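Could you help me review a protein record that somebody else here produced? What it holds is a sequence and that sequence's fold in C-alpha cell form. I have pasted the whole thing underneath without changing anything:
=====
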Amino acid sequence: MWWNWQGTNPNENIVAYMKKNYPPDWTYANFAPHFRADLYDPNEWVDLFAASGAKYVVLTSKHHEGFAMWPSTFSFNWNSMQAGPKRDLLGDLAAAIRNRTNIVFGLYYSLFEWFNPVYLRDKSNNFTTQYFPEIDKRSWAYRPTANIDDYMTIEELLKELVTTISTGGNALVNIGPNLHGKIPPIFQERLRQMGSWLQVNGEAIYATKPWKYQNDTINPNTWYTSSKDSKFVYAFLLIWPKNTTEIILGAPLSSSRTVVTLLGSSADSLPWHVASGERGIVIDVSTIKLHSLQSGWTWAFKLENLLSDDIINPTPGRGVPVCFHCSLLLSALLWLLCVQM
C-alpha cells in the first residue's frame, strides 16, 4: 500500500482513503503497533499447508519496507519482536513446519528497502547513483476492501498450476494473512480445494516432467505432463465439453496397446479410437458421470503405451512442442506456497 500512497506514482484512491481515515502526519511506521498477530497460530497454518498438498512453504521474512519478521539485530525497533506482535513470527513458523511436517521451508528476503537511508540517497540523486541494489518485485497482501470477484476461483488456480507445471515451471501461490495473523477463510477454502484435487490428481503433478508437447492445439484446453520414466502421459482437461460424449486430443500418437484412464474415476479404462490423420485420439466419455468423480475441476487423463514421434514425422498444428529454453525449470517441480504478512 505504501508505494501506492507515497510512491513516485500515487494511486488517487489510496491517497484519498489515507486523507479520510488517518491524521495528516501519519507515517508508514505508525502502522506497526496495529500489526498485532494476536491470533497467529503457526500450527494451524502448517496443518492448512499440509492439507493443501504443498511441498514447499516460503515466508516473506522482509519486504521492501524493511520490517523483519524475526528479532533482527540489524533492524532496530523495526521487527516483529520489538514492534507490533512482540514475537518471532518466522522462528515460530519454522519450528511448527519442522516439527509437524516434511514440508521444505524457505524464505523470501528483499534487499530493496524504501526507507533505507542508502536507498533514499539514491532517490535524491535521481538514481544516478546506485548504492542500494534495485530489485523490482510485486507484492500481494491482505486487503480488507477486497470483493469476492477479486479472488481467483479454484478453476483459475488449477489452470495456473497445470499450465505452469506443463511447461516445466514452478507455481508459487501467494496468500495474505490479516493483521491478527489469521489466514482468511477464502484463502483457506482455496488451499483445501487445491489439496483435495491433488489427492486425486497428484501423480500427474508431483514427480513429473514436461512432455514433448505442452499444449494441444486441436483441443487448446488440454495441457500435458509426463511421468519421469516416460511410461505415462497425462492430459489435463481444463473445461469439460458440453453436448458431446467425445474428447479429441490431437497430440498423442497411439498404438494398439494404448490404454486411457481418467484419474478419480472408478472405470478401469475408457474406449477410444484413432482420430483422422496420422496422430490424435478420440476418447469416449459417454459412461462418465461428472457428479460421480472424485474431483469436480480440471480432469486428468492417463495415457499409457503411446508411440514415439520417431515413428512418423510430427504433423504440424497437432500440439505445441516444449520450448525447454523458455521453461523456468527443466523438471516439473512441486507447487510452492508463498505466505506474506
Notes: The longest strand covers residues 56-62. The CA atoms of residues 258 and 329 lie 29 Å apart.
